[in-house]
Amino acid sequence: MKGMKKVAVMAMLWSTVSYVSRAEQIVVDGSTTVGPIAKAFAEYLMRQHPGLQITVSESGSGNGAKSLINGTCHVATMSRPMRPAELKAAAVKGVNPVEHVIAMDGLPVLVHPSNPIKNLTLTQLRDIYFGRIGNWKWLGGPNLKIVRISRDTNSGTYECFNEMVMNRTRMAGDVEYVGSNGAVRQRVQSTPGAIGYAGLGFVDKTVKAVAINGIAPSAETVLDRSYPLSRPLYMYTNGEPATNTLLHKFIYFCNTPEGKQIISSIGFVPLP
Asked: Which of 93, 159, 167, 197 is least surrounded by Cβ atoms within 10 Å, i.e. has the fewest?
């Protein structure tokens, strides 16, 4: 009889552990821009809650939306809003994407540190990516061919740049497309004639961010939207997370002092 009670208790414990394991697993997928924030949030919260498991993938904003719609992630991180077509596809699947703005970001335009160019107008930037301006000397810089670097077309960063700079028109045929913001930075830092764009958190001493229309990218100019290439960063969930869940804590961690400090330390701009 004692043996039967022991087995029953063990079965109950195993059932509880199994349930908790499932309940405390959060799968995140999407933007390479928002990825560093999501990973830092995950690391912090997993230290506070040892039973919590959070996995963060960076497959691009478009793939994050697909994962949420297909039910393969709990959180889609995106550096652009969901498109009408994505919202329609979600409705067909019975998914209700709820938008959460977690931080602000700018799209710094990056050049090699040796490039003396300090400012570009939006028109000049557009003409560079159109292919109308092909050498830095035409802008008062060195006699160097401009090497145009862009994020891949599935990226939310590309979507924002394409809308804010290119007016949704095709870029020049020789533009090089890369799969992450880190790859943009790496290409620019190793190529004196290169130009690229990435998230604010990817600016360091190995590249130089130029001003656009006379406004340099910074936390202040991004927050007040005076920098022309400013944008919100998003997390999407299927419905509003219940307030007593760790998913809710993860999504709204951006509003806590600890979350804001993490966002700032990575190089992005916390919400006021």
From this structure: 167
